[in-house]
Design goal:
This protein is mainly beta and about 250 residues long. About 10% of the residues lie in helices and about 25% in strands. A hairpin with a 2-residue loop joins strand 8 and strand 9.
């Protein structure tokens, strides 16, 4: 809808209709070569680490790095090796009463006659961004609470400020909703590669997209939606080659 930004995970299109059904077209003559299956000898990562980039100017924001860093190491396994390292495109951010350290302003705001002395000048900034020098060298992901354009403040989710931008908040945050798909202990390892060349037609050419899938019947008879790694279209010979994995 209007004035809203949507984020979709990279497997969003895997739930969409397949781009080509090789099982149905196996007997139609549209498949010119294949389906050829080969065993994928690649190994799964043994660990995953997601972290925000540290900011050269905002030391206060960097103090929240633990909430913007998550690391899982699954130990020794002959089929696993290496680390999947993912760097967020923004730096950590801090807020009042974020649990990282005691908020001094809250102490003064709770004193008797505080409203008489300071008015609401303290409490009105309870959801404001904390910064050491009033500036930063990197972007920050801030979830706006929708209250004011001119005096914008962040949104609080179950007591945690700006939670969806974090990866280690203790709630269902960015790791669970986006990066969890790359966790080697959760996302199934793809053991097979598949390659096929099919006859091109106008409808198929218009739908070409590596974010879709190809429906295949495996050598063992199972039906799968294989992820597309590469598409080679030869419009001169009117052929399309799909390279997939599952």
């Amino acid at each position: 809808s209007q004035n809203q930004l949507y984020f979709e995970r990279k497997d969003f299109f895997l739930n969409q209709p397949v781009i080509y059904d090789a099982d149905i077209n196996q007997e139609t003559g549209d498949i010119l070569e294949g389906v050829c299956f080969t065993y994928n000898e690649g190994k799964l990562f043994s660990s995953i680490k997601v972290e925000g980039i540290m900011d050269a100017l905002d030391d206060v924001g960097n103090e929240a790095r633990d909430k913007y860093t998550v690391y899982f190491d699954y130990g020794a396994n002959p089929n696993w090796e290496g680390a999947n390292k993912k760097m967020l495109s923004y730096s950590p951010s801090r807020y009042r009463n974020d649990g990282i350290e005691a908020d001094v302003l809250t102490f003064f705001d709770n004193l008797p006659l505080s409203n008489l002395i300071w008015g609401n000048n303290i409490s009105q900034y309870s959801k404001a961004l904390l910064m050491a020098k009033g500036t930063a060298s990197n972007p920050k992901m801030l979830i706006w609470d929708g209250q004011s354009y001119t005096d914008a403040t962040i949104k609080i989710y179950n007591g945690v400020q700006n939670m969806p931008a974090m990866v280690n908040s203790g709630q269902s945050d960015l790791y669970d909703k986006f990066h969890r798909i790359d966790d080697p202990n959760i996302n199934p390892f793809r053991f097979w590669n598949a390659e096929l060349t099919v006859r091109a037609n106008c409808q198929l050419v218009q739908q070409l997209d590596v974010n879709r899938t190809v429906r295949l019947r495996t050598p063992y008879g199972a039906i799968v939606n294989a992820r597309i790694n590469q598409i080679n279209a030869n419009l001169g010979e009117r052929t399309i080659q799909f390279t997939c994995e599952f």
